[in-house]
Amino acid sequence: MKTPSPFLPMTRAELGSVELDVLLVTGDAYVDHPSFGAALLGRWLKAHGYRVGVIAQPRWDSPDDIRRLGRPRLFAGVSAGALDSMLAHYTAFRKKRHDDAYTPGGCAGARPNRACIVYAGLIKRAFPGMPVILGGIEASLRRAAHYDFWTDALRRSILLDSKADLLVYGMGERAILEIAERLRKGKDIEGIPGTAFVRREDDPQAARLPSFEEIQSHPKLLMKGTLALERQMLNGGWASQKHADRNVIFAPPAEPLGTQELDKLYSLPFTRRAHPSYKQKIPAVEMIQFSLASHRGCAGGCSFCSLALHQGRRIASRSRRSIEEEARALTRHPDWKGSITDLGGPSANMWGASCAVGPEQCRRASCLTPSICPHFQDSQDALADMLRFLKTLPGVRHVRVASGVRHDLALRSGKYLRALIGEFTGGQLKLAPEHSCGRVLRLMRKPGFKSFTEFLAVFERESSARGKEQYVVPYLVSAFPGCTDSDMRELSKWLKARGWRPQQAQCFIPTPGTVASAMYHAGIDPDGRAIEVARSDAERNRQHRILVGG
Ligand code: SF4
User: Fold this and answer.
1) Binding site membership of 367 for ligand 1 (Cβ less than 6 Å)
2) Residue 377 CA: which ligand 1 atom is closest?
């Protein structure tokens, strides 16, 4: 008898003659690893009794690829992949990228621009009447009227442009199960927590965001709408936004998964490999195959970060037992070479963190800036213990921390700092001070530069005490809204004084849905005060050259 494939089916041969319940269409290659959304949600649905298939990076000149596994019984889910497709395709100066870490061979061109809209259209053509559900970061952050850097224009909610039936925002496990359950029972799917949908009539209980047309006439209103949606992610409640004669209604966000649920999710039988149909290597697999996710969410609330906005500020953590079990399983993997390449989440050191009072009434935009909130509780001593324990597991030679460390938080725990610097930094430690100028850092909602220099001093002291030659690699940004040429010179001067040439310098890209993007478009800070914005390519390029010394 033929052994069943350990992967979710991508081909008719793997699926056999049965009918799918759910089809997932994704802009990334299918890698059966929990860092890939289609694998994560596909496995989650499968564990709850649904038959799921994956169509990864379909051709978009005809719906034939979409039809490969037949018409699913319940719905088709669509994601552009791990990144917004426009961000995946274009640089900060709107030049085409040639590489794509989520595609076989690492070559760009396997997914279309605005992948959610294109895939939703293909599914409608392939399977008329089939409910189409958008999800993932592209859909999530374009769920309301948003600024699109690549066309330098305000765009409508992606729900309207895609004509999808529903949009899942944030992490989708709860919502996707409820959608499947309701459709299985023949019920309607409006109002599920963590989703958005379109209606002619407004919802009387919803907080009204400025409409698309109002923002078009008064760009400053984009800030109001963006801040309101950001707050909704933390505080809950309904919201709505009018687009001409229709309303996009945002149901309250889904509760983050609890520890037991996360443990269950990460214990599913991921093969941690790319689907065997791929002939070329997928660069992202090399990077993440033996990494472990400890938690979701980021309390930092940085104004430019899409990932943190998508996952929300509430931290959801796995149990130490579950992480240890997964680490043990890694050592039995046929490709295992001895190194856990990362333990982290959107940030490295927020595992186990919580809010002591509950975030429902919180009005702060960040738990960590301008200073760490007194209600914020971290668990970094316990994290250091866990990292050290993982290192003692049979078969584990190294454990590394590759996720970005939140340095202001790290300074609160000497134990974590010593462990991180002394035992878990593989020669280079990535940190994201982003800038040196206090005013720009406040607009970014990053900690003051002093905490970075304090961290550096500890890093250098601890490294030399242990006889280790290792370096901090600072991530820096030019042309952030509110940043002037003279602010860039200040940063450049500081770098030169240290003899540093920046290796990781990025010219700011306004990604959809973020507060920083609203600043860029509207030319105001979150309090409505006018700020200078380097908007033209020439201005942005000039700032960038000041930083990189070109
Ligand atoms: S009260 Fe403090 S810890 Fe809690 S969500 Fe608000 S800022 Fe974060």
Assistant:
1) yes
2) 3
Q: What b/e sequence results for 110-133 when a residue is b if at least 16 CB atoms lie within 10 Å of its CB, and e otherwise?
A: bbbebbbbbbbbbbbebbeebbbb
Q: What digits encode the pLDDT tens for the residues 297-338?
A: 999 999 999 988 899 999 999 999 999 999 999 999 999 999
* Domain span at 191: 12-202+244-250
Whether the pLDDT of residue 284 is over 70: the answer is yes
Burial of 397 from C-beta contacts in 10 A (0-12 / 13-18 / 19+): exposed
- The verdict on residue 546 lying in a domain is yes
pLDDT tens-digit readout, 198-253: 999 998 889 999 999 999 999 999 999 999 999 999 999 999 999 999 999 999 99
| Ligand 1 closest atom vs CA 363 | 6
Last residue of some domain: 187, 222, 250? Answer: 250
State whether the beta carbon of 104 lies less than 6 angstroms from ligand 1: no
Euclidean distance between CA atoms 92 and 94, whole angstroms: 6
Ligand 1 centroid from CA 301, angstroms: 11
pLDDT in tens, 521-531: 999 999 999 99
For ligand 1, whether the C-beta of 373 sits within 6 Å is yes
Distance 359 CA to ligand 1 centre (A): 6
State percent of the chain over pLDDT 90. Answer: 94
- What distance in angstroms lies between residue 172's CA and the mean position of ligand 1's atoms? 23
- Confirm whether 43 is domain-assigned: yes
> How far apart are the C-alpha atoms of 416 and 348, rounded to whole Å?
11
Q: What is the CATH number of the domain that holds 98?
A: 3.40.50
Query: Which ligand 1 atom is nearest residue 314's CA?
Result: 5
- CA-nearest residue for atom 5, ligand 1, is 359
CA distance 320 to 283: 29
**Whole-angstrom distance, CA of residue 217 vs CA of residue 288:** 44
Q: Is the pLDDT of residue 3 over 70?
A: no
